[in-house]
Every structure is written in C-alpha cells, then in structure tokens.
Amino acid sequence: MTCCDWIVPPTLPRARRTDHLSPEQTHPDQPLGPPSDVFALGALFYEMLTLRPMFRAESNLQTLHRIRRAEVTAQLLEVKELFPGLDKVLYRALSLY
Question: Residue 15: CB partners within 8 Å, gap ≥ 6?
C-alpha cells in the first residue's frame, strides 16, 4: 500500500497526471534539476490560487504540448487581477531557462 492508496483506492484505475510536469520532464533526454522543480511548483501554485490547472487540455498529449510551449501570459493576467504581485512570482517560476 502506498500513500496514494489512501486518496485513490487501489481498485480504481489511476490516470497518469501530466498537469504539473515541467517542460524538461516531457523530453526523455533532458536532464532534470532545480529549475524543473520550480516550474512544476509554479504550475501547482497557479492551480491552488485559481482552482484550475494551468496547462490541462482535452488529452494528455495536448497538455504536454501546452507545457512545452509554456505560454502563461493570459493566465498570469488573471492572477494579477486576483492577487496583485503574485503574478511576478509565478512568472519567475514558470520562466523557461
């Protein structure tokens, strides 16, 4: 039994979630490092603030394409209206190095 089994019972199928991946994690040959973690945390933080995933699309493949492009300008304008100043934090976290 894993910690996820407490949240999702083992009898239910688990879909692979791609919402909080970094662009580096979508390419098998890319090395992962701290910037990758910061990007993923930025996407998670956006979801916590807006209650919506930042990059989710109709399919996992489309979601991966959105993550690779990392176009966040429209979403950050929404955050700026709701929480002035936090848009700058998210912009920095979601910047591609």
Answer: none
Q: pLDDT tens for residues 44-95?
A: 999 999 999 999 888 888 999 999 998 888 889 999 999 999 999 999 999 8
**Three-state DSSP state, 43:** helix
Token pair belonging to 57? 């699309």
Q: Check the CA dihedral 52-57-58-63 and report its sign.
A: negative
Radius of gyration for the chain, computed over Cα atoms and rounded to the nearest angstrom: 15
Tell me the whole-structure pTM to 2 decimals: 0.75
Question: Interior CA angle at 57 toward 50 and 82, to 5°?
Answer: 15
Please, are residues 43 and 54 in contact by the beta-carbon 8 Å criterion?
A: yes
Q: Are the C-beta atoms of residues 22 and 40 closer than 8 Å to each other?
A: yes
Q: Round to whole Å and give the CA distance between 71 and 66.
A: 7
What is the dihedral angle through the alpha carbons of 10, 15, 21, 23, rounded to the nearest 10 degrees? 150
